[in-house]
Amino acid sequence: MSVFAARGIFNMARTPQYGPGTSVVAINRRKQMDPSHKLTIMRHISDEDIVLLLGHRAPGERFRSVHPPIAEQQEPACPMRKLVRPTEGAKNGDRVRYVQFADSMFNAPCQPYQRTYAEMYRFRGIDPGTLSGRQIVECRERDLEQYCRLLIETEMFDPALVSLRGATVHGHSLRLSEDGMQFDALQRCLLGDDGVVRYVKDQIGLPLNRMVEVGKPLDSAWLKEHSTIFHSLVGTALRDDREYVEYLQRIHTLRTKYGFMPREA
After folding, report:
1. Containing H/E element for 260?
2. CA of residue 39 relative to chain centroid, distance
3. Strands 135-140 and 127-130
4. What is d(CA 209, CA 131) in angstroms, rounded to the nearest whole number?
5. Which of 38, 52, 175 is nearest to 107 (CA)?
6. Do residues 68 and 103 both lie within one domain?
7. Could you read off the pLDDT of 129-175 as tens digits, one per residue?
C-alpha cells in the first residue's frame, strides 16, 4: 500500500468552497457557481424566442455544421474519447456561436467575472471571455441555446438590468434611465406601459419580425438581496465583508511577493 493510500489521500471527500465571504453578495456568488444548487426559475422563454434573441439562425432552420457527426468520422482509437463525453453540439458537428451579456453595476443579479465562474462550473465545452462590463461565451450552437435558457430564465437575469448585447454593449456603468432600464444605445429592448420588457431587436441590434417578451423587471429590494455585485452606494459594500477583504489582500500580497522575491512567498 502506498503512503498516499495509507493516509487516505486518494479517498478524501472534497467539498468545493467556490469563494470566500460572509455577506449576502458572497453567498449569492457561491449559489450561482455551485452546480448542485438549483437556480430559481423566474420566467419562461420559448425555444423560438431564444433563437430570435441570439440571431444566429432562423426559427426552424437546421443547425449548420463544420464537420461530420463524430460517429461518422471513424477517428482512430483514443483513450481521451472514452474519458471525455462530447456535448450534443460537438457530437453533431455544430458550428461555434456566442451570446454576450451586459450587466448593470446597479445591483444586477450577475456580473462578468461571476458569469464566467458560474458557467465554467455549470456548462461544458465553453470558451468564455470576460471584460469589465460584458461577458461573452462561445460554444457549439445547440449547446448555446440550451445554456441560454438557464441564463435568461433563472435568477441570473433581470429584464431591466441585464441585456443581451452582441455589439455596442456600453451602458453597464451609466446611471439607469428614469424607468429603471439599463442604457442601451441600440435600444434592443423596451419597457411597455404594462410593465413588461420586450426585445424588438436581436443581440446584434437587427430588428425582429416580432417582439420577444422577457418579463417584468424585478423590484429593487429583491435585486439587492440577490445581487452578486459589491456596491457601496446602492447595495453591499465590499469593506463590510471582512473575510472577502482578507482573502483579496492575501492574493495580492502573495502575488506581489512571489513576483518580486520568490523566496519570501
Report:
1. helix 242-260
2. 13
3. antiparallel
4. 31
5. 175
6. yes
7. 999 889 999 999 999 999 999 999 999 999 999 999 999 999 999 99
